[in-house]
Amino acid sequence: MKRIYFTVFNELVYDQRMNRICSTLAENGFEVIIVGKRLRSSPVLSNENYKQRRLRCWFSKGKIHYIEYNIRLLFFLLFKRMNAVCAIDLDTILPCYLVSRIRNVIRIYDAHELFTEMKEVVTRPFTKKIWTLVEQFCVPAFTHGYTVSEAIAKVFFQRYGVRYEVIRNVPLATDEPSGNPQKKFIIYQGAINEARGFEFLIPAMLHVDVPLHIYGNGNFEEQLHLLIEKHKVQDKVKVYASRHPAVLKGITRQAYMGINLIENTGLNQYYSLANKFFDYMHAGIPQVTMQYPEYMQVNKAYEVAVLIAELNPVCIAEAINALLADDALYEKLRRNCAAAKAVYNWQHEEKRLVEFYRTLLQ
After folding, report:
1. CATH number of the domain at 3-170+346-361, please?
2. Check whether domain 186-341 has CATH 3.10.310.30, yes or no
């Protein structure tokens, strides 16, 4: 049985994408171990068909946190038996590169993000320089890899000549019916991070008559609460901590519509195809999202969203209110969600994932 180690920088419990990947590979005869970090607030790990390991760190914020975790990860992996090691995004790629060279094992890059083009990076010149050096050093050496969209795969080929597979991050299709919301509310689910458009969404809620429920955690939480207070929308906007994926799925199905906003600051945002886009689709709820290339491509085939060209409070409020006011449009998008999820689902994508690893590790 081939053994694969996956490395992430985030909390394991809430990572639906890695749960799908690890479960699929375990079901298809691979021994899978995923390594993440342990925080004081980390919930109990759920029972899965793959192994999970957490590394406890002294530091929890800042550059020293990255450095400490990567050092701990390096020494953890160095003495493990494996056939392959897979770095999930750039923030764990250096330990994987070093271990693969020292242990002479196959190295794989799973690029969920175009990391050096994230807003958190491009708006900080020194940070951008450091991560660009890491990318330039490591990515050309990771000739085996995959990413979540054609656009990001193209960028990697143009920059480094590596041809990465495209394996979309989409949910498992189920027979569960679409939700039937008893009360109208808008949902935002996922990381509460920079570049998610909260600076524009919160003031837009002044002109919307239904509440917004936000589920998640991230580096923008403090600023989000300040924005809610500044615009005096505490009665309309409620913020909840991250929920277990199974629980969140049920909540999403009861929402009236979803919100998926991304600032056009860096190519990562412009070429994004966010997890929540497909989560809303599979929940059977229309959404408001951006008029960016990947969303336009999906929406051209299956109109499931109202696309906005500019990220500002007026455009956001107009799009939300259009869905609230137009019952015919709303029902059309709901029906299209049901058709789209029959195409964009994990049952299709997992075949490419399994074939990728079988070919590589045969």
Report:
1. 3.40.50.2000
2. no
Tell me which H or E stretch contains 35. strand 31-38
Q: Are 108 and 145 in contact (CB under 8 A)?
A: yes
Tell me how crowded residue 116 is: count the other CB atoms within 10 A of its CB.
Answer: 24
Taking the domains of the chain in order of start, what are their residue ranges? 3-170+346-361, 186-341
Structure pTM?
A: 0.88
Q: What is the pLDDT of residues 220-244, one digit of tens each?
A: 999 999 999 999 999 999 999 988 8
Q: How far is CA 324 from CA 48, 177, 201, 215, 330, in A?
A: 40, 21, 16, 21, 8
E strand or H helix that includes residue 250: helix 245-253
One fold for 3-170+346-361 and 186-341: yes
Lateral strand order in the sheet of 257-260: 237-240, 212-215, 186-189, 257-260, 287-290, 305-308
Q: Which residues pair with 151 in a beta bridge?
A: none
Class of residue 266 by CB neighbours under 10 A (exposed 0-12, middle 13-18, buried 19+): buried
Check if the beta carbon of residue 302 is closer than 8 Å to that of residue 336.
yes
Find tokens 């994926």 and name the residue: 245
Burial of 125 (0-12, 13-18, 19+ CB in 10 A): exposed
Q: What are 305's two structure tokens?
A: 């969203």
State the maximum Cα–Cα separation within the chain, in Å, rounded to a whole number. Answer: 61
- Residue whose entry in the numeric block shows the structure tokens 């299956």: 302
Q: Are 283 and 249 in contact (CB under 8 A)?
A: yes
pLDDT digits (tens, 9 = 90+) for 28-75: 999 999 999 887 777 788 889 999 999 988 877 778 888 999 999 999
